[in-house]
Task: structure prediction
Amino acid sequence: MSRIVYVNGAFVPEAEAKVSVFDRGFLFADGVYEVTAVIGGKLLDFAAHLTRLRRSLAELRLASPMEDGAILDLHRELVARNAIDLGHVYMMVTRGEADRDFAFPPEDTAPSFVLFTQSRKSIETPEVERGLKVATVPDLRWARRDIKTIQLLYPSMAKMEARRQGMDDAWMVEDGFVTEGTSNNAYIVTQDDAIVTRSLSNAILHGITRAAVLRTAAEAGLRVEERAFTVDEAKTAREAFITSAGAFVTPVVAIDGTGIGTGRPGELTKRMRAHYLEEAIRTAI
Ligand code: PMP
Result:
């Protein structure tokens, strides 16, 4: 079945979903995006994704495409039209169509607004069962990683480097410390059961799943340390995992060929995944 895609005010079959070659998203990667997971036809952590979209738009002085309620309606409409039970909604706003110029176009230039869905077969994947192997690569991205921009070339290259090494994904490293994964936040569990993940700053994306998982962990009485950790500390950790709207909580079992803990998905990681999913599904809208 061909998907129905939303493009600038119209729901169209995917083959007809087009934007201009002069779109600033195409020419300058001048745009931001959000990915919201869908389970049982409902949106997970939606309010938080909208809040982050608003922040990304404001940081780049991008115009808002529409009000929050209308954006929620659009998500629901697209999920319904494509009969998505399990999957996600991708939403993107760019600075719109303008003559190619490094200076921003006039403020009244209409932003481009695109949404499409992707479905998936199952919440559980082979990666969740066996755990991910990650390779470390230098973090060569720009310095405003807190803004969720569509300029994803370096993370894409990092992922390909990991694949070239026979691994699943990359963890990026700056000044000796892990920043995050190519499209996820990175965590370790210490030998004394503390969950460690980098604190919020411009160095990482402020993951929506991260916020939810840390909340869940605190509620469960687990110890959380928001601080940077080195690759060496990660290699001697008891467990490791990643979080994102696509992967939820997914175990990491090796870093640069060194097994973490038992070399199998960790028990605390499994518990965090179950807790996160339970809470996210309970509060889905
Ligand atoms: N870090 C980066 C670099 C990402 O691209 C993503 C996913 N877009 C995340 C973290 C996870 O964020 P979220 O939990 O909001 O999906």
About this structure: The pocket of 4'-deoxy-4'-aminopyridoxal-5'-phosphate is lined by residues 35, 180, 183-185, 205, 207-210, 243-245 (CB under 6 Å). The mean pLDDT is 97. The longest strand covers residues 31-39. The chain is about 30% helix and 30% strand.
